[in-house]
Amino acid sequence: MAKFEPTGDAFLRATRYANMGPSSEELGEPFPQYLAASDPNLPRVALPDPTLFTPPDNNFYQLALNRRTHRRYDTEAFMSLAELGYLLLLTQGLREAPQPEKVTRRYVPSAGSRHPFETYLAVQRVSDLEPGIYHYLPEPHALEVFRPGNQSLKEAHAATTNQRQVLTSAVTFFWAAEVYRTSWRYGTRAYRYIDIDAGHVCQNLYLAAESIGYGVCAIAAFKDEQANAVLDLDGQERFTAYIASVGKKVQPA
Ligand SMILES: Cc1cc2nc3c(=O)[nH]c(=O)nc-3n(C[C@H](O)[C@H](O)[C@H](O)COP(=O)(O)O)c2cc1C
């Protein structure tokens, strides 16, 4: 039996530079938007000024040593809006004000700085937020109330096959990829870069959460169609790339 998967092998071959045609950028296609437009019909929640929140534990070596996956959370504990803003800032926040016709700069690396992700949150226990699904706006560091209510949460949880750590999380992050932000420059190879980029984002979530006493579980075992339906993604131009649950740690993990 071959020690590789034909589909995976075909993907690697198709995404070699030598086997790809010209990218949209090379064909002179216009620059894509690097921030999703906010929806004026959705209510907004401002996040606290992130410069006013710093984690108590800044010992990076200890944080990195302590990082591990946590699947048991304190189901009484509410995350503060400032803590949530801190996690959002370090995962997808902007490090520079966006300029028209320019890529964004953020606190995580991204191939060509294309930053293909939009962040959605399934919120259960965050102070000052009603349960429901929210969309993060890096500019102006705010949340849109995307789908309020417990029914949308149930659907979001079901998309993860109701993994227990999602059901008990204070908040679960969903990262949706907008393919063209990356494929405009890199063509089919974008599908490699998007998944690599997602890993960087989630690693920052692990470390940022660790620094304020929260635990994270990365989640790639989810039902694509269900997750895309909850976030209103078509599954082609926009798809759910990665998920992570977050909650106040209880020991043992
Ligand atoms: C790409 C990826 C996907 C993962 N998917 C899941 C998942 O769906 N469910 C889960 O419980 N853990 C998931 N995990 C967490 C791993 O099981 C965990 O990282 C691994 O057991 C190592 O443990 P550690 O993170 O504590 O070092 C995932 C981790 C990664 C990096």
CATH homologous superfamily caption = NADH Oxidase
Q: Radius of gyration, Cα only, in angstroms?
A: 18 Å
Distance between the termini: 38 Å
Mean of pLDDT: 95
**Which architecture would the CATH scheme give at its second level?**
3-Layer(aba) Sandwich
Shape: globular
Q: Strand content of the residues, in percent?
A: 15-25%
Ions, cofactors, ligands: which are bound? flavin mononucleotide
Number of domains: 1
Walkthrough of the structure:
With 253 residues, the protein is an alpha+beta fold. It has one domain (43-248): 3-Layer(aba) Sandwich (NADH Oxidase). 31% of the residues lie in helices and 19% in strands. It has helices at 6-14, 60-66, 81-92, 150-159, 164-167, 179-186, 190-210, 224-230, and strands at residues 44-46, 117-123, 132-137, 142-148, 171-178, 214-219, 238-248. It has a 7-stranded antiparallel sheet, with helices on both faces. The mean pLDDT is 95. Bound molecules: flavin mononucleotide. Residues 68-69, 71, 163, 217-221 line the site of flavin mononucleotide.
Task: List its traits.
about 30% helix; NADH Oxidase; seven-stranded antiparallel β-sheet; about 250 residues; about 20% strand; binds flavin mononucleotide; alpha+beta; 8 helices
